[in-house]
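Posting for a labmate who doesn't have an account.
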Amino acid sequence: MNSFFRSFFFSLIFFTLASCAVGPNYQTPEVSLPFFWWNKAPTTPSPDANKDLCWWETFKDPLLTQLIREAQISNLDIEKALSVIRQARANVASSKASFFPALTGSASDTRYKSSKSGSLSGSPGTNASLFSTGFDATWELDIFGGIQRANEAAEASLASSIEDSRSVLITMMAEVAQNYINLRFYQHQYKTLKDIVHLWEEYLRAQKDLYQAGLATDIAVSSVDTSLLQAQGLVTTADTNVKQCIHQLGILLGKEPWALYKRLENIGDIPSADTVYLSCLPSKIVFERPDIRKAERDLAAATASVGVSFANLFPSFLLTGTLGWQGMNTNQLFKSKSSFFTAQPTMSFPIFDFGKLRSKIDLSEALRDEAFITFKETVLNALQEVENALTNFANEDERRMHLKDAMISDEKAYELVDGRFSAGLEDQETALQAKITALQTKINYLDSLRSRSLDIVSLYKALGGGWDTAQSLKDTSAKE
């Protein structure tokens, strides 16, 4: 009876220590958020708030959608991100294998010859062979949860890699949309500036004719020539911007910089979304952002690493064994009389290390605390980005409407001035300035339309848009 209680007592102590080593399970940290966003953009609620949305389809531009789809397949940053996921997945598989015994096979053929003058046993000068084959097994028992925690850390690191890759994917899709929107604006700007150059060229010819007739001064001609050169410089800048956007889109699609010239040379409308979803959804949607999910998984990995460091304070148990056969020739192998085996349970435990293990625990706890602070900081930065995106979109939408009214007003003013010029009631310079003003106002309106569309892209990106691509990213990395 005393032996029973003694065994029960030591077993209780043993499993208590084991539970201490494993420690409490990881729990996702809670962050207090307002239910809705503070800033509200003038948007239309999504008919299905829980439905994953390909946000680029709200622009209703088939070419933009096609470019984004192609970039998802051929973008080099995405391929590199998938490679990182495969590395993390291999690390998880390696970590899980530590739960099971390791079995190693071996075979040997030992040939020897005894000395003729110094042999103490057997026949001097005898030649012989010893054949041996068998299996060696090693198994570390995870009594105190060190291997379990290491596996949890590896799985959390895998999830972090997936979220990091998803962040690359979302950023890439946003860059494709931004460059495409900029391209369409610069193409329209280039065309409008060419119209302004044409107006200045006509006016310069008229001024030169007046100068030849003695009705204009050389100062007036020089002033018009300067205005023409300035306009031509703006055209050159717009042309440079057009080509740079095409080059960047080519790189984003994993192609040569000039590969998309034929597909994008024709001027298209600036993508614009009449309906914008998501900004009316609860603020908790921000937790779909890959950087927040990555920070949370990094925190989980850091927490599991604390358990790994803590388990090193306790004994480790290792079972090793060998099963094999030996014989003087191969015919004797795999017979019962030639078999042999060894079994060796081993326990090792730290006694005194000058505080090395405790220092590792302190380090892992400090890294865990840093990961928690990083998580909170990431959430706050995400909230700021969303609020800024909502504010920018709302203000730019209002500015766009004002510029649209101004553009219509300038067009009407030009029509009135042009009519008076045709009737001989206004001079050519007044009509020219009215037309140039109308064209410049049009450029400003198009620039506002461009900025509004870019703000929409920034809004979806800030909200972690492109959630439908997360699962496909996991599936693709698993197949490769």
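Reply:
Got it, the structure tokens are right above this. Strands lie at 102-113, 127-141, 316-327, 339-348.
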